[in-house]
Specification:
Order of helices and strands: EHEHHHEHEHEEEHEH
Number of strands: 8
Bound molecules: zinc ion
Distance between the termini: 16 Å
Strand order of the largest sheet: 2-3-1-4-8
Strand content: 15-25%
Protein backbone atom coordinates (compact mmCIF):
# COMPACT_ATOMS: atom_id res chain seq x y z
CA UNK A 1 0.00 0.00 0.00
CA UNK A 2 1.43 3.35 -1.00
CA UNK A 3 -0.85 5.80 0.74
CA UNK A 4 -1.46 7.28 4.13
CA UNK A 5 -4.87 8.86 3.76
CA UNK A 6 -8.41 7.84 3.03
CA UNK A 7 -9.30 7.40 -0.64
CA UNK A 8 -13.04 7.20 -1.28
CA UNK A 9 -13.13 6.90 -5.03
CA UNK A 10 -15.77 6.50 -7.74
CA UNK A 11 -14.64 5.32 -11.19
CA UNK A 12 -16.71 6.32 -14.24
CA UNK A 13 -16.26 5.15 -17.81
CA UNK A 14 -18.36 4.10 -20.78
CA UNK A 15 -18.51 0.48 -21.93
CA UNK A 16 -15.20 -0.14 -23.73
CA UNK A 17 -13.34 2.67 -21.94
CA UNK A 18 -11.13 0.19 -20.08
CA UNK A 19 -12.67 0.75 -16.66
CA UNK A 20 -12.22 -2.86 -15.57
CA UNK A 21 -8.49 -2.84 -16.29
CA UNK A 22 -7.95 0.45 -14.47
CA UNK A 23 -10.08 -0.72 -11.51
CA UNK A 24 -7.88 -3.82 -11.11
CA UNK A 25 -4.74 -1.72 -11.14
CA UNK A 26 -6.10 0.88 -8.72
CA UNK A 27 -7.16 -1.67 -6.11
CA UNK A 28 -3.82 -3.48 -6.41
CA UNK A 29 -1.72 -0.33 -6.01
CA UNK A 30 -3.72 1.41 -3.30
CA UNK A 31 -5.02 -1.61 -1.38
CA UNK A 32 -8.63 -0.51 -1.77
CA UNK A 33 -11.60 -2.88 -1.71
CA UNK A 34 -13.13 -3.02 -5.19
CA UNK A 35 -16.87 -2.48 -4.90
CA UNK A 36 -18.33 -3.47 -8.26
CA UNK A 37 -22.12 -3.37 -8.10
CA UNK A 38 -22.38 -5.51 -11.24
CA UNK A 39 -20.24 -8.26 -9.68
CA UNK A 40 -22.04 -7.98 -6.34
CA UNK A 41 -25.49 -8.26 -7.91
CA UNK A 42 -24.39 -11.24 -10.01
CA UNK A 43 -22.85 -12.89 -6.91
CA UNK A 44 -26.00 -12.23 -4.86
CA UNK A 45 -28.13 -13.66 -7.66
CA UNK A 46 -25.92 -16.76 -7.82
CA UNK A 47 -26.04 -17.17 -4.02
CA UNK A 48 -29.84 -16.87 -4.10
CA UNK A 49 -30.13 -14.27 -1.31
CA UNK A 50 -33.41 -12.35 -1.08
CA UNK A 51 -31.80 -9.26 -2.59
CA UNK A 52 -30.10 -11.44 -5.18
CA UNK A 53 -33.34 -13.05 -6.26
CA UNK A 54 -34.94 -9.64 -6.63
CA UNK A 55 -31.99 -8.32 -8.64
CA UNK A 56 -32.02 -11.42 -10.84
CA UNK A 57 -35.63 -10.82 -11.88
CA UNK A 58 -34.55 -7.52 -13.42
CA UNK A 59 -31.23 -8.69 -14.87
CA UNK A 60 -32.91 -11.68 -16.56
CA UNK A 61 -35.25 -9.40 -18.44
CA UNK A 62 -32.50 -6.91 -19.31
CA UNK A 63 -34.03 -4.17 -17.17
CA UNK A 64 -32.08 -1.84 -14.92
CA UNK A 65 -32.06 -3.04 -11.34
CA UNK A 66 -34.08 -0.46 -9.34
CA UNK A 67 -32.32 2.13 -7.21
CA UNK A 68 -33.59 0.71 -3.92
CA UNK A 69 -32.02 -2.67 -4.62
CA UNK A 70 -28.67 -1.31 -5.79
CA UNK A 71 -28.49 1.26 -2.99
CA UNK A 72 -29.23 -1.48 -0.44
CA UNK A 73 -26.35 -3.55 -1.80
CA UNK A 74 -23.95 -0.58 -1.66
CA UNK A 75 -25.05 0.47 1.84
CA UNK A 76 -24.46 -3.05 3.21
CA UNK A 77 -21.07 -3.26 1.54
CA UNK A 78 -19.90 0.15 2.78
CA UNK A 79 -20.83 -0.89 6.33
CA UNK A 80 -18.13 -3.60 6.23
CA UNK A 81 -14.88 -2.93 8.10
CA UNK A 82 -12.53 -3.20 5.12
CA UNK A 83 -13.91 0.05 3.68
CA UNK A 84 -12.86 2.16 6.68
CA UNK A 85 -9.75 3.53 4.96
CA UNK A 86 -11.29 3.83 1.52
CA UNK A 87 -12.88 2.04 -1.39
CA UNK A 88 -13.17 2.01 -5.16
CA UNK A 89 -16.78 2.11 -6.36
CA UNK A 90 -17.30 0.78 -9.88
CA UNK A 91 -20.68 0.72 -11.63
CA UNK A 92 -22.34 2.92 -9.01
CA UNK A 93 -23.66 5.56 -8.95
CA UNK A 94 -25.20 5.67 -12.43
CA UNK A 95 -27.65 8.54 -11.92
CA UNK A 96 -27.66 11.86 -10.08
CA UNK A 97 -30.27 10.52 -7.70
CA UNK A 98 -28.00 7.60 -6.79
CA UNK A 99 -25.09 10.04 -6.40
CA UNK A 100 -27.10 12.16 -3.97
CA UNK A 101 -28.07 9.06 -1.99
CA UNK A 102 -24.43 8.01 -1.84
CA UNK A 103 -23.39 11.45 -0.56
CA UNK A 104 -26.02 11.25 2.19
CA UNK A 105 -24.92 7.72 3.10
CA UNK A 106 -21.26 8.78 3.39
CA UNK A 107 -22.07 12.02 5.21
CA UNK A 108 -23.95 10.04 7.87
CA UNK A 109 -20.56 8.45 8.56
CA UNK A 110 -18.68 11.77 8.49
CA UNK A 111 -17.18 10.92 5.10
CA UNK A 112 -17.29 12.28 1.56
CA UNK A 113 -15.96 11.12 -1.80
CA UNK A 114 -12.35 12.20 -2.25
CA UNK A 115 -12.09 11.55 -6.02
CA UNK A 116 -14.34 10.81 -8.96
CA UNK A 117 -12.27 9.64 -11.91
CA UNK A 118 -13.85 9.66 -15.35
CA UNK A 119 -12.10 7.77 -18.14
CA UNK A 120 -13.03 9.70 -21.26
CA UNK A 121 -12.71 7.98 -24.66
CA UNK A 122 -14.15 9.40 -27.90
CA UNK A 123 -17.31 7.67 -29.07
CA UNK A 124 -15.89 6.45 -32.40
CA UNK A 125 -13.02 4.75 -30.60
CA UNK A 126 -15.43 3.08 -28.16
CA UNK A 127 -17.48 1.76 -31.08
CA UNK A 128 -14.34 0.41 -32.76
CA UNK A 129 -13.15 -1.22 -29.53
CA UNK A 130 -16.50 -2.84 -28.69
CA UNK A 131 -17.63 -3.79 -32.19
CA UNK A 132 -14.17 -5.31 -32.83
CA UNK A 133 -14.19 -7.38 -29.66
CA UNK A 134 -14.09 -11.16 -30.00
CA UNK A 135 -14.16 -13.67 -27.16
CA UNK A 136 -12.90 -17.24 -26.94
CA UNK A 137 -15.67 -19.79 -26.40
CA UNK A 138 -13.31 -22.06 -24.51
CA UNK A 139 -11.21 -19.86 -22.20
CA UNK A 140 -12.97 -16.48 -22.37
CA UNK A 141 -9.90 -14.53 -23.48
CA UNK A 142 -10.77 -11.36 -25.34
CA UNK A 143 -9.30 -10.02 -28.57
CA UNK A 144 -9.91 -7.06 -30.83
CA UNK A 145 -9.87 -7.51 -34.59
CA UNK A 146 -8.21 -4.08 -34.96
CA UNK A 147 -6.15 -3.43 -31.83
CA UNK A 148 -5.30 -6.91 -30.57
CA UNK A 149 -6.02 -9.52 -33.26
CA UNK A 150 -5.32 -13.22 -32.77
CA UNK A 151 -2.51 -14.80 -34.82
CA UNK A 152 -5.05 -16.70 -36.91
CA UNK A 153 -8.43 -15.18 -37.66
CA UNK A 154 -11.24 -16.58 -35.52
CA UNK A 155 -8.95 -18.81 -33.43
CA UNK A 156 -7.75 -18.27 -29.85
CA UNK A 157 -3.95 -17.95 -29.49
CA UNK A 158 -4.07 -19.35 -25.98
CA UNK A 159 -6.17 -22.48 -26.41
CA UNK A 160 -7.16 -22.85 -30.07
CA UNK A 161 -10.83 -22.26 -29.20
CA UNK A 162 -13.29 -20.60 -31.54
CA UNK A 163 -13.70 -16.82 -31.25
CA UNK A 164 -17.15 -15.24 -31.27
CA UNK A 165 -18.79 -11.83 -31.01
CA UNK A 166 -21.15 -11.16 -28.12
CA UNK A 167 -24.71 -10.35 -29.21
CA UNK A 168 -24.57 -6.91 -27.61
CA UNK A 169 -21.26 -6.04 -29.32
CA UNK A 170 -22.72 -5.55 -32.81
CA UNK A 171 -22.40 -1.94 -33.91
CA UNK A 172 -26.04 -0.90 -33.60
CA UNK A 173 -26.38 -2.34 -30.10
CA UNK A 174 -23.04 -0.79 -29.13
CA UNK A 175 -24.25 2.64 -30.24
CA UNK A 176 -27.44 2.17 -28.21
CA UNK A 177 -25.49 1.13 -25.11
CA UNK A 178 -23.25 4.17 -25.47
CA UNK A 179 -26.24 6.48 -25.93
CA UNK A 180 -27.83 5.10 -22.75
CA UNK A 181 -24.56 5.56 -20.88
CA UNK A 182 -24.14 9.12 -22.12
CA UNK A 183 -27.70 10.08 -21.25
CA UNK A 184 -27.34 8.75 -17.71
CA UNK A 185 -23.79 9.74 -16.99
CA UNK A 186 -23.38 13.21 -18.43
CA UNK A 187 -25.51 14.77 -15.68
CA UNK A 188 -23.52 12.73 -13.16
CA UNK A 189 -20.25 14.16 -14.45
CA UNK A 190 -21.67 17.67 -14.05
CA UNK A 191 -22.90 16.83 -10.57
CA UNK A 192 -19.42 15.79 -9.47
CA UNK A 193 -17.76 18.68 -11.29
CA UNK A 194 -19.97 20.98 -9.22
CA UNK A 195 -18.73 19.29 -6.06
CA UNK A 196 -15.10 19.79 -7.04
CA UNK A 197 -14.16 16.10 -6.97
CA UNK A 198 -14.18 15.29 -10.70
CA UNK A 199 -10.97 14.34 -12.50
CA UNK A 200 -11.04 13.44 -16.19
CA UNK A 201 -8.48 11.03 -17.59
CA UNK A 202 -7.94 11.02 -21.36
CA UNK A 203 -8.23 7.42 -22.54
CA UNK A 204 -8.48 7.98 -26.31
CA UNK A 205 -5.68 6.31 -28.27
CA UNK A 206 -3.89 5.40 -25.03
CA UNK A 207 -2.47 2.13 -23.77
CA UNK A 208 -3.63 0.99 -20.30
CA UNK A 209 -0.21 1.97 -18.82
CA UNK A 210 -0.57 5.55 -20.06
CA UNK A 211 -4.09 5.80 -18.67
CA UNK A 212 -2.96 4.39 -15.34
CA UNK A 213 -0.14 6.90 -15.00
CA UNK A 214 -2.74 9.68 -15.30
CA UNK A 215 -4.83 7.94 -12.63
CA UNK A 216 -1.93 7.61 -10.19
CA UNK A 217 -0.95 11.25 -10.74
CA UNK A 218 -4.45 12.20 -9.57
CA UNK A 219 -4.62 9.82 -6.60
CA UNK A 220 -1.03 10.54 -5.45
CA UNK A 221 -1.45 14.32 -5.57
CA UNK A 222 -1.66 15.87 -2.13
ZN1 LIG B 1 -9.11 -19.59 -25.68
Amino acid sequence: MTRSRELDVVLLGAPGAGKGTQAERIVARYGLPHISTGDMLRDAAAAGTELGREAKRYMDTGELVPDEVVIGVVRDRLAEDDTRDGFLLDGFPRTCEQAERLDVMLAADGRALTHVIEIDVPEEELVARLAGRRLCRECGRSYNVVFDPPGREGVCDACGGELYQRDDDDEETVRNRLAVYRRQTEPLVEYYRGRGVLHTVRGGGKMPDEVFSQVTAILDAA
